[in-house]
Amino acid sequence: MSHALHSSAIDRPALTTPAAPPAELSLEERLTLVNTAMTARLDEAAVAYEVNTAHIPTQPVNLDDIVTVPLTPTLQPPPEPYPTPVAALLQRAHHRLLTGGWCSGALVDEDGARCMLGAIRAEARGDSGLEAGAAAVLLDAIRREFGDVDSVPSFNDAHGTGRVPLRMVDQAASLADARGL
Asked: What is the pTM (predicted TM-score) of this model?
């Protein structure tokens, strides 16, 4: 008998008094509650995003490769030349690529556009020592940013547009100037 009383007490739901209806909230109180709830949900979503994307490798983006502006180099005079010979050569090569065009796969294409090495060679005007020095500094600048690169021509030909190669020639000119070359 005690067993039957015990099981029926468990099966029967507990009687509770109904809760009093909530007091009417003001608009400010409701907005505060909604704001608090949304902030908590946004914080949870931000944490979930960080957790879900933590395994994805990313590399910093150089905005010079993305932000495009119309180039009008023929309307602009070349910049003040660097005082050192290798830096000045790289600066002239950069200006030549801006004004004459960039190409890949050849030193000079049928339209007269040049690759990085073609522009250096044209601006060296037969001075093979100056040309070699400029190519060495350019390769060093490329390797500083892109790691192990075989050569200037292979780097040049690996790009579909001249934006990155032109930027690297410009950076190499600054590097040569900083080194006093």
From this structure: 0.59
